[in-house]
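Predict structure. Chain length: 258.
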Amino acid sequence: MTVFEQLLICAGGLGLASLAGSLAGMIVRRIPHKWNDIFLGFCAGMMLTAALVCLIVPSVDMAGKNGWWQPVTGVVLGVALIAVLDRITPHLHHIAGLEGNETEEVHTASTKSINRVLLFVIAIAIHKFPEGLAAGVVFDGEDMTNAYTVAITIAIQNIPEGMVVVTPLIMIGVSMWRVIGVSMSVALLEVAGVVAGYFLGDVSASLLPALTALAGGAMLYVISDEMIPETHSHGFEKHATYALVAGVMTMLYIQMFV
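Prediction complete.
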C-alpha cells in the first residue's frame, strides 16, 4: 500500500470520526457537563502528547542544529494562524454549551442567537482545516508511526467536536437533513485539509520541519485556548485534569505500539 493510499484511509477515518460524533449528538442531544469535560480533558491530553512527541520533537530532529529556526518559526506561525482565526470567529468555549439564558434565547429562535450558532458552526469548520493539515503534513515524514498517532488523536477528538456541532443546530430548529449536510461538510473540510497538507509537504520537502512544527503549534494553541478552558468552566476541573493525565499516558503507549 502506497503512502498516499494510507493517507486517504486516514483522511476517511478522520471524516468518519467527525460524522460518528455528529450522529451521537443527534441521538443523545445533550451530555452531562461532567462527562463532557472528562472526555475533552482526555482528548486534550492525547493531543498535547501528539503535538509534542509526534510533531514538534520530530521537527527539531529533522531541522538539526543549523536549522533551529524552522521549528521555532513553524510553531510561532501555527499559533498565529489559529489566533487569527479566533479573532474572526467566536471562542468555542463561550458558545459550546449554549446554557442558561443562551438556551432560552435559542428556544425563542431570536435572530441574535441564530447568528451566534451559525458563527459557532463556521468556527468549528474553520478549525477543521488546520487539523487536517496537521495530519496530512506528517505523512511526508519518514516515521509513519507519528502520522498514525496524530491521525488517531485527531480522530478521537473529532467525536466530541462532532457532537458539539449538531446540538446547537438542533436546538434552534434546523431540519435534520440540513444538520446532516452541515456535518458532512465539516467532515469533508477536514479530509480536504489532510490531502492539502500532504501535497504541501511533498512540494516543499525542504520546509517540512517548519510545516510539521506549524501543525504542532496550531494544536498547542487549540488545546490551551479552547479545550482546557472548556473543561475547567463547569466545576469539574479535577476530573478533567485527571483525564488529561490519563490521555497523555494513553497516547505515549499508543505511540509505543502503533
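Summary: The chain is about 85% helix and 0% strand.
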